[in-house]
Amino acid sequence: MVKPFVPQLVYFEPKALDYPLGKELMEKFTKLGVEIRETTSHNQVRNLPGKNDFQKYRIAKSTLVVGLRKTLKFDTSKPSAEYAIPFATGCMGHCHYCYLQTTMGSKPYIRTYVNTDDIFEAAEKYMKERAPETTRFEASCTSDIVGIDHLTHTLKRAIEFFGESKHGVLRFVTKFNHVDHLLDAKHNERTRFRFSMNADYVIKNFEPGTSSFADRIEAAGKVARAGYPLGFIIAPIYVHDGWEEGYKDLFERLESELPQEAKKDLTFELIQHRFTKPAKRVIEKNYPMTKLELDEEKRRYKWGKYGIGKYIYEKDQEASLKDTLSDYIEKYFPNAKLEYFT
Ligand code: SF4
């Protein structure tokens, strides 16, 4: 059982203490006896303890910076939503394949933003621009937001904010089971609560520091009983010996362990494993013993944003992954919606 995250070290930007959430967090961490430091900006978070890069990386992953979100221009977030809504960045998990290896390679610490009203105001503007069309906001593009929310309750406020909104909906995904404080949020079914799931082999070998399959399923059941629309992201879909059986077993277990409520309005998103060259370098440095297969020769190159292309599976392998997993969804969850495969 993975315990709810408590940082080892917390930095506060001085302006954060002008906000109620900043003050609340200062009190909380003082009471918990966590080491607290001041920093003028997160960019100044240098000299993290640790004898070498390997140790520094691990300490950074359990360091929290409490600050303000300055950029209120949201990134797009295709295909799952129109915009990424930024409540936090970074994650305490240690998934070897994590996409944050590319986006936050040199700054792996976790940041939480206390000026949530500014973020909500920006979201309101984006909704107005598209109204009466619905605008979807994805809250987990830059972190596993559920993993730190027991400390901040920012996600809970966001769920209630979108619960009241006319033209906006919220989505996020997690690998953590610490969801209890979110169960009584007034979501009005405008938040889709998703869990990231995978074949046993992938969870065991590549997802240290996150909740187990059994704990995630149990949390998914609670979330469904609380009336949230539920979803699963199967990612990264990863070719390994016996992958067909491994993924079949995943769907069988989901089917047998989920309560009936969870099956009423269920979505699946399928994302094949991919990596970029910069991510490969970071992964090999931070997880030198990883079994993760990162051989460009076995993959197909796909052009990506900012000139950083990614390596995905060869066409025939990709088709086989897509067909096999789509068939399982149809067999075990005939009423569910498969939103995309990418
Ligand atoms: Fe990355 Fe998600 Fe794993 Fe956190 S839980 S390390 S965000 S893949």
Automatic annotation (TrEMBL):
List cofactor names only: [4Fe-4S] cluster; S-adenosyl-L-methionine
Entries under Pfam families matching the protein: SPL (PF20903)
Does Protease appear among the keywords?
Answer: no
What keywords tag this UniProt record? 4Fe-4S, DNA damage, DNA repair, DNA-binding, Iron, Iron-sulfur, Lyase, Metal-binding, S-adenosyl-L-methionine, Sporulation
Q: Name one GO cellular component term.
A: endospore-forming forespore
Q: Which reaction does it catalyse?
A: (5R)-5,6-dihydro-5-(thymidin-7-yl)thymidine in DNA = a thymidine dimer in DNA
Q: Which GO terms describe its molecular function?
A: 4 iron, 4 sulfur cluster binding; DNA binding; DNA photolyase activity; metal ion binding; S-adenosyl-L-methionine binding
Q: Does the keyword Cell division apply?
A: no
Give its E.C. classification number: 4.1.99.14
What top-level class of enzyme does the UniProt entry assign? lyase
Q: Which GO terms describe its biological process?
A: DNA repair; sporulation resulting in formation of a cellular spore
Query: Known InterPro entries for this protein?
Result: rSAM (IPR007197), SPL (IPR049539), SPL_Bacilli (IPR034560), SPL_firmicutes (IPR023897)
Taxonomy, superkingdom: Bacteria
The record describes the protein's role as: Involved in repair of UV radiation-induced DNA damage during spore germination. Can repair thymine dimer 5-thyminyl-5,6-dihydrothymine (known as spore photoproduct (SP)) by in situ monomerization of SP to two thymines.
Family statement drawn from the similarity comment of this UniProt entry:
Belongs to the radical SAM superfamily. SPL family.
Q: Subunit structure of this entry?
A: Monomer or homodimer.
Name under which the protein is recorded: Spore photoproduct lyase
